[in-house]
Amino acid sequence: MTPKQIRVMVLNDMEKLDRTLFRLDQGFELQFRLGPTLQGKHVHVYTNYPAEGELFERHKFHALDWINPTGRQDDSDKFCTLDLKISGSYQYYFGHGDKEKSGGGYIVVDPVLRVGADNHILPLDCISIQTYLSKCLGPLDEWLDRLRVAKETGYNMIHFTPLQMLGESRSCYSLADQLELNPDFSPAGQAYNWTDVGNLVEKMKNEWNMLCITDVVYNHTAANSKWIEKHPECGYNLVNSPHLKPAWVLDRALWHVTCAIADGKYKDRGLPALIQDHQHLHAIRGVLWQDVFPRIKLWEFFQVKVEPAVEQFRALLQSGAKPGRSNTDGKQQLKIIQDPQYRRFGNTVDMDSALETFVPHGSSPGAIEDCCNWLRRRLDELNNEQFHEIKHHQEQATNCIDGTVSYERLADHGPKLGPVTRKHPLVTRYFTFPFEEATLEQDLELMNQPEKSCHFLAHNGWVMADDPLRNFAEPGSNVYIRRELICWGDSVKLRYGNGPEDCPYLWAHMQKYTEITAKHFVGVRLDNCHSTPLHVAETMLAAARAVRPNLYVIAELFTGSELIDNVFVNRLGITSLIREAMSAGDSHEEGRLVYRYGGEPVGAFLQPSLRPLVPSIAHAMFLDITHDNECPIQIRSVYDSLPSSAIVSMACCATGSTRGYDELVPHQISVVSEERFYSKWNPQAKPSSPDEVNLQSGIIGGKLALNRLHQELAAKGFNQVFVDQVDEDIVAVTRHCPSTHQSVVAVCRTAFKNPKHHRYTDEVPPMCIPGKIEEVVLEARTVERQAGSYKKDERSINGMPEYTVEIKEHIQMKDSKVVRQAGVTSRGRSEYVQEIVFEQLTPGSVIAFRVSLDPKSQELVGVLRNHLIQFNPLYKAGSLSDPNTPDILKSTLTQIMSKMTLADMNILLFRCDEEEKEDGGGCYNIPGWTALKYGGLQGLLSVMADIRPKNDLGHPFCDNLRQGDWMIDYVSNRLMSRGGTLAEVGQWFQAMFTYLKHIPRYLIPCYFDAILVGAYTTALDATFKHMSSFVQNGSSFVKLLALGSVQMCGVGRFPALPPLSPALTDVPYRVNEITKQKEQCCVSLAAGLPHFSAGIFRCWGRDTFIALRGLMLVTGRHLEARNIILGFAGTLRHGLIPNLLGEGVGARFNCRDAVWWWLQCIQDYCTMVPNGNDILQCPVSRMYPTDDSKPLPPGTVDQLLYEVIHEAMERHMQGIEFRERNAGPQIDRNMRDEGFNIVAKVNPDTGFVYGGNRFNCGTWMDKMGESERARNKGIPATPRDGSAVEIVGLCKSTLRWLVELHKQGLFPYNTVTIHKDGKQLSVSYEEWDRKIQEKFEKMFYVSHDPNDPNEKHPELVHKRGIYKDSYGASSPWCDYQLRPNFTIAMVVAPELFTVEHAWEALNVTEEKLLGPLGMKTLDPDDMVYCGVYDNSLDNDSYNLARGFNYHQGPEWLWPIGYFLRAKIYFAKKLGKETYDKTVYLVKNVLSRHYVHMERSPWKGLPELTNENGQFCPFSCETQAWSLAAVLEVLHDL
């Protein structure tokens, strides 16, 4: 079973992708997912792809349903889906809230073509098409004899130019009747019809395996079409398009100039009928400017008759008229109204604007007269402006006429039309004129007779460099008056209007034409597509697809812009765009086109079956020549026909040609004037016979071999392409099959210049072909033969008989005349290369080799693919079973990895350079590039995730893999040195890599990627199996965050946690490599990577316990969490938990908050873990049973955890006051002496814990000044002494919990006992809890009442409706700073807050502090705010130097978790509407974290960012508490 192909389109707000092409195949699934700008919003996606069982209607859209496979925590996995089963072009758009459309685009689904009696599929890249001019096929009963040439030459599709009745000019594209079959196809006594054509097409499909397509021409009809005489409204005439009148007048005048020149009337002015030089051109200019323009006065069509307008104005002034303000928008400007009928002087003045612009100074006749004079002067100016505007048009018209005459009559490359006659006029007429000749004056009178002027129809044509999305015959375009149209005088441009209601006959007629075509042909070529009105083609193609759903649509677009091409491809659902090899000026450009139009690079990565939908370029139909191209034999040389064809045939797209190219017809076969018939097929034809051809004619034999090869390569999946420009004339194209690793290499020596006249070198550079050459598929070259020379035949379109192709197919190298093999060279053990020396690669030669890997490599690739099937069934193709499979590969990797612990996974997947160095290693470094972020698989995968979608095989990472086995060995050796299951995984890698090392180096990146992707996804699956159901059933985002737990939690070479009590069960042990003693190996939690990952700086009390709930409890790592809680409990001293752990022995007890975070984690453990309260009874091995004891070995003094908890509470109530051990620069080089004095007490009145002083910082905002220059050394930036709000909250949370535990009989203490002034006092936990509850809101809330009696420092209040950051600080103004810390108290002790106050405070916080990824650590309105942290900067700025502003503005990530959780908690209390809005905010904020994690090579969230989410180079790239806090929000949702 091949996996279903799924493409993901990520929707972003305001992203309009109308000009981006997305191509999909039938059978694909398209998923729409929400980008970060839309997550959390109520988004609706609409599409006109028909719902199940309905028919397609372009304007009928329906909404798609959202699927959220993982429930509702976030929108990272939410999608809606389309199962694509019908080909065509479909639109989608999306909106949210009151915006119906806030983005959209198109998708194009390719048709499936079927051929043969068995209806087998013809892939688009297999197409080899040949164009036929239908009128040259003769009677229908002779068609098969002529079309057989295409079959015998190996083509599988025929393109017929239109088969309809032709117009007077006999041009293939000028159709007299779109519904009638060309009568020329019916011999005397016969009347063939469309059914007969259909039967012939069907016969070719079933018996010859050939499909047929034909043109549809929507732009124009022949000027002599009978139906347009009856329905002149279908064209642009002077009645329905009066704006063309001035252009028609000029056109008639030019016709009369033609007649005058033809009749010799301008001879005496130096203008004879035969125009031969530039003097004559100059004379034409004279006639135009002296006779024509002054006579026809075109400017009058655009001017105002001044006097009547002034009189009308005077009458209004005299009657006291006032301007209607509503009509003039109050803007003083005279407005001229263009006469819609375009009569001379028909324009009028908008009198409202006149009255407003020219206001008299009074009502006296004099004042009115002055006013009228002003108006008269202004009208004269405006008329003059119009006169000059028309003069510019006339100058351009003169230049265009000059250019046309010069090309048609003087240029060497032009048609050289000879004398001016009525048949060959001076310039082509722009309008039809179906009346008798008369004088110009009489002609011009007809303009005002609608029954006649409706028959003056505008001709069609094309305009150089015009905007293809604009119709040049509509009002607003001046193409006709400026004579910019290159005109087709045999065709009338059709006028469709905006829809069928504007011209019912034309729409119905053309729809019928389309339906006839779609009934009989599998596809259509849209002729002149770039100037077909889009809405017309859209409607017609919809009608065609209703008849034939898998309609194949091709077109040529000359828009000059890929973006505008895409507009046509998108709206019309064009399958293939015609691309011309003739557009290449040299072989290098021709090779580049092959590379551009299809295929992946050789050695490309295998892309996952579910992947992002990426923009594509339109599928190409690459033609060696089109019927519009000039003859390549004339432009290049006859010898180039074969090699250029070969280059085209090697392209990985549809290819083709035009009949005549293969027979070497030495001139362009004109679509207008050619009336001879094509030659027929006869295997016995003589070379000199003009009306018959066979395999020896021209290059037909070579083309047959090339067409077969082209079709085989596409059918067998040779979809990788490499183009090598060997020298200026030689192009080598490789097509490679990624499953069998077979290649075909075609070496083509072009001959853009004729070898008879141009000296080509005999030195052809040798080529190195990697692999083993199996055979020469073909070698061919154009040679001369004795068959007479070319004479143009009267009746048949004949080629040059004097040339033929010498061809050999499927021969061995030794039998080749073109090359000799120069032996096998081996570059290293896996590079098997054959060097080829060319003997006779003459200009015009082609040779193609079939190349396999050498037998050993072929076998090893097959076996490797066999072992990769466990990860992806696509590797089944080309796989081989291995009789000698190593034992380690007999188990699947899933079985091996199922034995791994999460600590093992930390080593397999992660570990940054500092962690690796602790083990004596390091992360892999790519010379000349950079080191990987991790030693584990994630380090490699992060880089490969960037390279793979782009197939960036030139990346230094891929170079390193191709150049040697260093990276490959690093992956396996790093694991094998570890022992245990990791060593088994290492052996698995080593066994897989043994195959990998022996295949060609160019394939190593793609197979290395395949092995690693397989191992990585298997490791992730195994990882999540060890985690909680919340993670296992969670979204992609939840899983990504949960991986942070694996990233941060590991066991280093030296145990970071102090030893646990030997009496504790379930503690992991290992044998120390050096001492050979048994030692505990508990997982510890790193604070952040890379700065806090190894050695004594890995573990911090505060960081550990802020992160523990999210990374360990939420993810289900309960035992490891227990061990960390108990390990830290053992280090309790002075009633505090250490800040820096230092394995307990080197611990520093200089923070006031870590103990409260530790207590919060024990509470969370008890409430979240099944039987969590059991932890209270666990033994704790006390390292410091008294404040002054030396560190004791484990098990010396054991206590139960609840006793340690009680001790911590009691010590605080008693009052903690001590000086740090070893105080001085040896433990802190910046601290002032007073800072080493530690205080933590409880205020007996409020119950608030308080402490610290202005020289130390006991909370998480712990930046100590370091700059002597700025004089901040030894001064904390944020001492937060007094009662910090989050500590009060954490303390309240603990008290509430202990009271509850005591009630349940799970905690034996209900009071703390202290000694004060020689007396013993008791304080109950309930009373302590109640005091905080009573006092908190009074002391911490900054109310809106300026006279609030609880406010000690009203003069310091600068923001109201918030909660203070602290209470009782030594610098009172610090209490009033807005910071995000109170949100922590809201989450752990929401009972302290009133709902309304809390909500208001949260809204202020959101407005002032919320950043893209984190929370500003200080109010930006604060005078010391600075959002950019630079730890290296040392200057005179007290507030900035040496990163003093670490917590004075930069946006830290972890507080955002508490802010969002607080929002969610209080929003629930405020009702559904508020809650829904909050969920949107939360999802929207978190989507940015998801995007950051997806893109981060660390797969983490940073410690902090600079202001507005900018990257901060001094931050940890991934921080434990950042990941934990975000994961907790999703857990709360």
List the helices and strands and how they pair.
Blueprint: E1 6-11, E2 15-17, E3 23-24, E4 29-34, E5 43-47, E6 62-63, E7 79-83, E8 88-96, E9 103-109, E10 113-115, E11 120-122, E12 128-132, H1 143-152, E13 157-160, E14 164-166, E15 175-181, H2 194-207, E16 211-216, E17 220-222, H3 226-230, H4 245-262, H5 278-296, H6 306-318, H7 325-328, E18 336-337, E19 348-349, H8 351-357, H9 365-410, H10 440-445, H11 450-453, E20 459-463, E21 485-493, H12 504-520, E22 523-526, H13 534-547, E23 552-555, H14 562-572, E24 576-580, H15 587-596, E25 600-601, E26 610-612, E27 619-623, H16 632-635, H17 641-649, E28 654-658, E29 677-678, E30 680-681, E31 692-693, H18 700-715, E32 720-725, E33 730-736, E34 743-749, E35 767-770, E36 772-784, E37 796-797, E38 803-811, E39 819-827, E40 831-838, E41 845-852, H19 855-868, H20 893-897, H21 902-909, H22 913-918, H23 937-950, H24 956-963, H25 966-976, H26 980-996, H27 1004-1025, H28 1029-1032, H29 1036-1048, E42 1049-1050, E43 1069-1071, E44 1078-1080, E45 1084-1085, E46 1088-1089, H30 1101-1113, H31 1118-1129, H32 1154-1168, E47 1179-1181, E48 1198-1200, ...
Parallel strand pairs: 1-4, 1-26, 2-9, 3-9, 12-13, 12-28, 13-16, 16-22, 22-23, 23-24, 24-27, 25-32, 27-28, 29-37, 30-31
Antiparallel strand pairs: 4-7, 5-6, 5-8, 8-9, 10-11, 14-15, 17-21, 18-19, 20-21, 32-33, 33-34, 34-41, 35-40, 36-38, 36-41, 39-40, 42-45, 43-44, 46-61, 47-48, 49-50, 50-51, 52-57, 53-54, 55-56, 58-59, 59-60
Helix pairs in contact: 4-5, 5-9, 6-9, 12-13, 17-18, 23-27, 25-26, 26-27, 29-40, 30-31, 30-32, 30-40, 31-32, 32-34, 34-35, 34-36, 36-38, 37-38, 38-39, 38-40
